[in-house]
């Protein structure tokens, strides 16, 4: 008589350890989703460590905080412009006629437990989210992290910034207070300035003559559903590409375009990221609990015949308002129709500037002609023209920000508002050019300093007297790691148009794009665009004692 033993998994064979319930669930999920193999391949992925990389994490964590607090606020907010008489907890507003949106915001602030704190965390989180995205994009721009293969990811980040700005605009318009209503009025006027279709768009968006009855419900749907949904998709794609392309890293010992030097995702990086999330959450909560923002009960409900004093948008929407404020009030009449150029021209200029920022990676790739992948970051000083462009854009933005708050600046500093307006008009053209020239000169000076440091070493501060009486300062040679960092950057040769005729003497037609590329390339990488790196021969000659102390 023979016996048969069954050794199938989970058969409960004698002496075999019974798997815990959690392990069974994990095995069940892995058999259907392949989680274990996926985690094994990716959870030990290496990420470099640098303080500037935390800027993107601040933006990510702020976005999570906005989503969490936004869900809480949605439970109590009423997106309606129907008018009611207020009899809530805020006694000074008793008997005031207001929209249900404004009344529900008052209820959130004074009746809902923790409502005011959550409102302020949500608003401060939005400001920090957009600021972190902007500074993160500046880091990416100045270090060249947008180069191949990350051009698409730059576009995703750019779209996240633009959508974040419009999400903020629709968000701070929802309370229907006197400040946000003034901002909507500004937007309404800008839409009306669009030729031919402006009035139709305004009537459709507002549901009739301003202020209409539909703008708050429509902004609510856009703010809560449409824009966050698109941003979540873009954010997921952005993070997937970061994971797929591997993170960029600064030049240093052992770092190449084919490896990553850093820490594994699990457990080190995830532990640091988790701690950093709660740190960001704590700082935002502390700011929200300490500094009041958007006190709508002070401003009152919106009325079309009133404007709040010092009415200003949030900082990230200040520059389009500055464009319109400094523009002369030009109007032209064509065939009985009035074109408000004082508003229409700035509205057309703004998308052009934003488009230039979005496509810049492709422009630089075309100028250099470099099709290689880049995983090592640039030091901003080693690309003076790009750094100059970035600094010029920041200066241009600050000038327009002053223009967007010209009344506040005039009041605070006791200046003439006309003088500030003319400063913005002139500075709009002059300040970016001066900033570009100065920034480029500073970068070239820093390159010269690095070149001297590589060839002659670091100044030690020790003065030595030679036998013949001459005094010199002793220079200490740099470590190999420092030498590598200072000389690891790329130096492109300017593109040349080439001979105008081929080897048979046939005249070659040179296109405009080729001429433009050669001119831009010379501006980027010509003799006045970069300082030549020290060569190995120069270094050997100096360090061997021939030609230097």
From TrEMBL:
Subcellular location: Cell membrane
Presence of the UniProt keyword Cell cycle in the record: no
InterPro entries attached to this UniProt entry: Cyt_b/b6_N (IPR005797), Cytb/b6-like_sf (IPR027387), Di-haem_cyt_TM (IPR016174)
EC number: 7.1.1.8
The entry's keywords: Cell membrane, Electron transport, Heme, Iron, Membrane, Metal-binding, Respiratory chain, Translocase, Transmembrane, Transmembrane helix, Transport
Topology in the lipid bilayer: Multi-pass membrane protein
Catalytic EC class: translocase
Signal peptide: none
Keyword Membrane: yes
Region of interest (Disordered), ranges: 1-23
Source organism superkingdom: Bacteria
Cofactor(s) needed by this chain: heme
GO terms for biological process, alphabetical: respiratory electron transport chain
GO cellular component entries: plasma membrane
A GO term for molecular function: quinol-cytochrome-c reductase activity
Catalyses which reaction(s): a quinol + 2 Fe(III)-[cytochrome c](out) = a quinone + 2 Fe(II)-[cytochrome c](out) + 2 H(+)(out)
Residues spanning the membrane: 58-77, 123-142, 154-174, 186-207, 219-244, 265-293, 334-363, 422-443
Domain Cytochrome b/b6 N-terminal region profile: 25-251
Matching Pfam families: Cytochrom_B_N_2
Protein name (Swiss-Prot/TrEMBL): Cytochrome bc1 complex cytochrome b subunit
């Amino acid at each position: 008589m023979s016996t048969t033993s069954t050794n199938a998994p989970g058969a409960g064979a004698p002496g075999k350890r019974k798997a815990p319930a959690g392990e069974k669930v994990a095995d069940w999920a892995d058999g259907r989703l392949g989680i274990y193999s996926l985690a094994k391949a990716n959870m030990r992925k290496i990420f470099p460590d640098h303080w500037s990389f935390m800027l993107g994490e601040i933006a990510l964590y702020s976005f999570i905080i906005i989503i969490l607090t936004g869900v809480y606020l949605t439970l109590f907010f009423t997106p309606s412009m129907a008018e009611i008489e207020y009899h809530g907890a805020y006694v000074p507003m008793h008997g005031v006629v207001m929209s249900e949106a404004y009344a529900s915001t008052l209820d959130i602030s004074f009746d809902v437990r923790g409502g005011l704190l959550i409102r302020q965390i949500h608003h401060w989180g939005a400001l920090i989210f957009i600021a972190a995205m902007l500074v993160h994009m500046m880091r990416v721009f100045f270090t060249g992290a947008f180069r191949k293969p990350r051009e698409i990811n730059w576009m995703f980040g750019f779209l996240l910034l633009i959508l974040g700005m419009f999400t903020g605009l629709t968000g701070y318009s929802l309370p229907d207070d006197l400040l946000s209503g003034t901002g909507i009025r500004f937007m309404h006027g800008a839409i009306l300035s669009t030729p031919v279709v402006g009035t139709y768009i305004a009537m459709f968006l507002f549901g009739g003559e301003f202020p209409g009855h539909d703008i708050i419900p429509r902004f609510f749907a856009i703010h809560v559903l449409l824009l966050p949904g698109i941003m979540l998709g873009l954010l997921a794609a952005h993070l997937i590409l970061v994971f797929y392309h591997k993170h960029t890293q600064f030049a240093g010992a052992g770092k190449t375009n084919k490896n990553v030097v850093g820490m594994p995702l699990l457990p080190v990086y995830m532990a640091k990221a988790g701690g950093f999330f709660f740190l960001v959450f704590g700082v935002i909560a502390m700011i929200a609990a300490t500094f009041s923002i958007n006190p709508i009960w002070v401003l009152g409900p919106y009325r079309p015949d009133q404007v709040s004093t010092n009415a200003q948008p949030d900082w990230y929407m200040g520059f389009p308002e500055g464009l319109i404020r400094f523009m002369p009030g030009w109007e032209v009449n064509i065939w009985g129709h009035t074109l408000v150029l004082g508003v229409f021209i700035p509205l057309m200029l703004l998308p052009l500037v934003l488009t230039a920022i979005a496509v810049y990676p492709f422009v630089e790739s075309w100028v250099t002609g470099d099709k290689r992948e880049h995983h090592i970051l640039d030091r901003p000083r080693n690309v003076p023209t790009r750094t100059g462009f970035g600094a010029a854009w920041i200066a241009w933005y600050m000038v327009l920000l002053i223009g967007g708050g010209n009344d506040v600046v005039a009041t605070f500093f006791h200046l003439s508002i006309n003088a500030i307006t003319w400063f913005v008009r002139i500075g709009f053209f002059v300040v970016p050019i001066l900033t570009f020239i100065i920034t480029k000169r500073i970068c070239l000076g820093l390159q010269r300093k690095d070149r001297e440091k590589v060839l002659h070493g670091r100044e030690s501060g020790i003065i030595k007297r030679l036998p013949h009486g001459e005094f010199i300062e002793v220079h200490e040679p740099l470590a190999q790691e420092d030498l590598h960092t200072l000389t690891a950057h790329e130096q492109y040769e300017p593109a040349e148009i080439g001979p105008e005729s081929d080897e048979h003497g046939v005249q070659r037609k040179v296109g405009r794009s080729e001429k433009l590329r050669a001119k831009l390339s010379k501006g980027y990488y010509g003799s006045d665009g970069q300082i030549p790196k020290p060569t190995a021969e120069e270094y050997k000659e100096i360090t061997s004692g021939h030609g230097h102390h």
